[in-house]
Every structure is written in C-alpha cells, then in structure tokens.
Request: fold
Amino acid sequence: MTGVHRRILVVEDDPETAGQLVEELTTSGYDVDLAANGREALSQGAARDYAVITIDRMLPDIDGITVMRQMRDDGIAVPFLIISALGEVDDRVRGLRAGGDDYLVKPFSFVELLARLEALGRRSETVAKETILRVGDLAVDLIARTASRRGRKIPLLPKEFQLLEYLTRNEGRVVSRAMLLQHVWDLHFDPSTNIIDVYVGRVRRKVDDQQAYPLIHTIRGIGYCLRAPG
Reply:
C-alpha cells in the first residue's frame, strides 16, 4: 500500500491491545489512527480515507457490527478486518455478513495480521482507483455520489454532482457549454440558456471557496476546465 492507502484506523477499546497494535503497525510503516469506541470510529471513518479499518466486535458503547453497518449505510466502502475473541463459526459468519471483509480471532500472530492487511489494502487500492476520481485534493466518489476536498465533504445537489463528475472525468481538457448541455443535461445546444453558467457558478463556490487553490477555471469564449496547479 502506498500514500493514503497506508493509513489504517484501529478501533480497539483495550488500551494494552490498542497500544501494541499501533506500535507494531507504525513500526511496519503504516500511518495509524486510533478510536477507543464506536462513536470515535464513526467520526474518524467519516472524516478520513483509510485503506483498512481493524475493528473489535466488543466495544464499550456501540458494538463493532453496528459500527460497520452504519458506515456501510453512509457509503463508506473501506475494507473491515474484524479482530475478535469471538471465534465460533456463527460469530465469524455474522461479522462477515454485517459488512466485514475478513475476520481474525484473538490471540493472533502479528505476521498473519500484516498479511491480511496487505491483502485487504491491495483490494482497497484497486477499488479506489475504479470508483474515486482525484484531482489535486479533490476526491469524487462515484459509488457514494459524494465529493470532498482535503477530507471535507462538499454538499452537492444531484445535478451539481453530475456536472462536477463530468468536469473531473475530463481533467485538464477544455469542456464547452455545448458538451455540458449534451452530457449532463442531455439537451442540444441552446445559445440563449444560461443554465450552464448558473450551475458552474454554484459548483465553483462550493468546490473552490476558501480553498488553497481553485480547480474550476473559465476559458473565456469557450467553456470550462477543471485542473490542479502544477
């Protein structure tokens, strides 16, 4: 795993186990965040992109299965590795059916944990490449139909998302108003309409306001281009 895909969220309420996991994973080259309960896990999982989330079944406030189901309902597709002392077949099946991608029973070998994380991380990276478009610090999630900059979600109406998706798919290319009308609105060119300018203005304010650099650029007399600096 490379880049953002080396970041892992460890959800573990036992301080000793959590400390060991964080230390070992950090030594192995991962960036590790820690959540001590279900509420912290939900908050951190929504705020950042992770390659893998390791989660204990038994948490003090919200159980691990409920946390996973909530994240799945929220459109978070990150792989879950369940780490639990509950090792019966029914326990493992319930965890996997609830949204877990793999199940590791305590006590476990750290070498095995690393191997499972690497496997899940490769899957995560492949899925991310297929379903998330990135330009600079902008991420457009084609499955969840959401967009974010630097991890902060951008509130977009459905047609605004379609517009941003089309611009992102054509990163670095100049897109004319006629192209946007055809591909986003399924309309033939109408020189009298200002719908494109109105929607681009809305999306630009949501995407670029108070950001380090603008992404949406007007090409005078032609159309628009979405690109990052450099």
